[in-house]
Amino acid sequence: MRFLSRRLVMPNDLNFAGSLFGGRILEWIDEEAYIYASCQLDQKSLVTKHIGEITFDASAFQGDVVEFGLATKAVGRSSLTVTCIVRNKGTKQNICTADDIVFVHIDPETRRPQPHGKTKEQLDQQQIDLPR
Fold first, then answer.
1. Where would I find the HotDog ACOT-type domain in this sequence (predicted)?
2. Are strands 65-75 and 46-51 parallel, antiparallel or unpaired?
3. Hey, which end of the chain has fewer CB within 10 Å, N or C?
4. Distance (Å, rounded) from C-alpha 111 to C-alpha 40?
């Protein structure tokens, strides 16, 4: 799993208890997973269809830097399923895991699912070819 981006936990990201609000982290996961899926498929017309199990393991606090690890789990005809792990950059402790995030490629005019033309093998090869 590659950790591709980071965010700084700011005061407006906190809940009443002073830790990172769960809704904010879910917003970030959806955005980060979309960016990942969009880059993998080289497509912009993707919609979030499903987010499976979400597990919160630890808290993050103001000033913490969190990082997002994303990986391709499955590739369908018009869909891409990814997994996202959010961890504390400093401690490497997992904060949250969101599994089975499904994006569907749609035709922008009809808003109906449309094949994206990629296979799991192509995407795996694409990951190997990326500079480290």
1. 1-109
2. unpaired
3. C
4. 20
* Structural domain span for residue 47: 2-129
Closest alpha carbon to 63 in 22, 99, 19: 19
Under DSSP, the state recorded for 20 is B
The CATH code of the domain that includes 23 is 3.10.129.10
CB 52 within 8 A of CB 75: no
Other Cβ atoms closer than 10 A to 68: 25
Q: Say how many residues make up the chain.
A: 132
**Tally of structural domains, the chain:** 1
Q: How confident is the model at residue 64 (pLDDT cuts 50, 70, 90)?
A: very high
